[in-house]
């Protein structure tokens, strides 16, 4: 039976669910219940706004242990950024751009070390999107302290943001025209947050870019592009020397899952799984590829055109919709990807990353269907139910314990799921 959920307000969502049966996969069972479904990015605070897209979500890192996360998740959509406590469903902070035309596409967290601050670790959230303006937010201080237009164009947008996993003040910004810019934001500290944005490098993919990841194994920055995956070896030396002419690597994937082999390999999602493994989703393939980055580099020698041989192929939706970003947390052992029906596909990372002879596609642990939602605000405004339209899950985030999953959708919903029970 489909789970039921009553949606009433943005901060309080009573949840009544009847658990559907979950299939066993190698003696492992897992299930989640819908906990809070929020509509907190509405234009003009319209409680019945189902047009605003929420594009990305990301858990706040634990300041003391970067392998862990807090109970706060950041989401971006429309011209606002929201901070939500996943345990309570409370929106603890909201930051809106002064420019009503802004549309935030991407966010990224980092933890900076500030000598004179107490505590010395400080979490910073970066956000950018359609207007080419970079915003920096200190959530604990309750302030958006920096705003700078990094690209002046009516057609070029910021499509992805990523902080370097070790050099935490370095921010990579991917642009829709194929450029990747590397910036040093310095060490801003309260109360003045004095800083100067310093451009370190500009890389050219010459392809539309959808998201970025950085692997410490090989110091490789990779971009999901309109044709395959592009990469650059970005070392500390390259950043110090402000090297703009780094050689580009191009990763190509199997074509056997596409009926028309002339179709370009549009990669709309890329995620690091840990231990040098990468998850890649090519639009229209109906699968997720898991591959070994360093083994791929070694097998192709000095070539800059690299053929990827997946070690695993994960069964996923046969949808013809694009731009559904995967979420993963290696400590939680989960890879999650939404589809265009509001469902979440969950995979066991341990199984997905096993290196053995490929004989069959790996099936998901389970699929969490979109719950049956009674939306009082839509009823009052005489609008159609959410599930009348496609419900595209734009992005998913996984907490470090795997206890909470967060999905954001094309119909202005932030969906928080809570783990019920798992055992072997």
List keywords for this structure.
424 residues, mainly beta, Methylamine Dehydrogenase, Chain H, 5-stranded mixed sheet, 4-stranded antiparallel sheet, 4 helices, 47% strand, leucine-rich repeat, chromatin binding
Account of the protein in words:
It is globular, with a radius of gyration of 21 Å. Helix content is 5%, strand content 47%. The longest helix has 7 residues, at 293-299. It has helices spanning 236-240, 293-299, 349-352, 376-380; strands at residues 4-7, 15-16, 29-38, 54-62, 65-77, 80-85, 91-96, 104-113, 121-129, 133-138, 143-149, 158-163, 170-175, 179-184, 198-204, 209-215, 220-225, 229-233, 249-252, 267-274, 277-282, 287-292, 305-307, 312-315, 327-329, 334-338, 344-348, 366-368, 372-375, 393-398, 404-409, 414-423. The chain has a single domain (32-41, 49-419), classed as YVTN repeat-like/Quinoprotein amine dehydrogenase (Methylamine Dehydrogenase, Chain H, 7 Propeller), CATH 2.130.10. It has 424 residues and is mainly beta. The strands form eight sheets. A five-stranded mixed β-sheet has the order 16-17-18-19-23, with no helix packed on it. It contains four helices and 32 strands. The model is unreliable at 4-28 (pLDDT under 50). It is found in: Chromosome.
């Amino acid at each position: 039976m489909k789970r039921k959920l009553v949606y009433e307000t943005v901060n309080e969502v009573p949840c009544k669910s009847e658990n559907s049966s979950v299939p066993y996969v190698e003696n492992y069972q897992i299930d989640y219940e819908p906990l809070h479904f929020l509509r907190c990015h509405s234009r003009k605070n319209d409680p019945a706004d189902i047009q605003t897209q929420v594009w990305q979500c990301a858990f706040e890192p634990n300041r003391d242990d970067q392998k862990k996360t807090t109970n706060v998740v950041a989401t971006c959509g429309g011209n606002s950024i929201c901070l939500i406590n996943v345990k309570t469903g409370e929106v603890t902070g909201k930051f809106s751009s002064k420019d009503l035309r802004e549309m935030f596409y991407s966010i990224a967290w980092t933890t900076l070390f500030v000598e004179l601050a107490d505590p010395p670790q400080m979490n910073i959230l970066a956000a950018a999107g359609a207007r080419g303006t970079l915003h920096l937010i200190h959530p604990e201080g309750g302030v958006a302290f920096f705003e700078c237009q990094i690209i002046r164009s009516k057609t070029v947008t910021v499509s992805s943001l990523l902080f370097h996993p070790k050099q935490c003040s370095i921010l990579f910004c991917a642009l829709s025209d194929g450029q990747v810019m590397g910036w040093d934001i310095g060490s801003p500290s309260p109360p003045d947050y004095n800083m100067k944005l310093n451009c370190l490098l500009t890389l050219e993919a010459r392809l539309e870019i959808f998201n970025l990841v950085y692997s410490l194994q090989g110091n490789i920055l990779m971009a999901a592009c309109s044709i395959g995956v592009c990469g650059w070896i970005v070392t500390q030396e390259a950043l110090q020397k402000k090297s703009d002419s780094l050689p580009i690597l191009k990763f190509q994937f199997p074509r056997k899952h596409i009926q028309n082999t002339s179709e370009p390999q549009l990669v709309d999602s890329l995620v690091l799984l840990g231990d040098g493994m990468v998850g890649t989703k090519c639009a229209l393939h109906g699968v997720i590829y898991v591959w070994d980055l360093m083994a791929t580099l070694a097998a192709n020698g000095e070539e800059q055109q690299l053929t990827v041989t997946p070690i695993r192929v994960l069964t996923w939706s046969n949808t013809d919709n694009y731009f559904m970003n995967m979420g993963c947390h290696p400590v939680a052992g989960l890879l999650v990807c939404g589809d265009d029906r509001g469902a979440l596909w969950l995979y066991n990372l341990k199984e997905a990353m096993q290196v053995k002879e490929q004989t069959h596609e790996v099936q998901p642990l389970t699929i969490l269907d979109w719950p049956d939602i009674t939306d009082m605000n839509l009823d009052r405004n005489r609008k159609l139910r959410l599930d009348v339209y496609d419900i595209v899950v734009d992005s998913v985030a996984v907490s470090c314990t795997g206890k909470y999953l967060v999905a954001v959708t094309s119909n202005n919903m932030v969906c928080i799921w809570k783990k019920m029970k798992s055992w072997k």
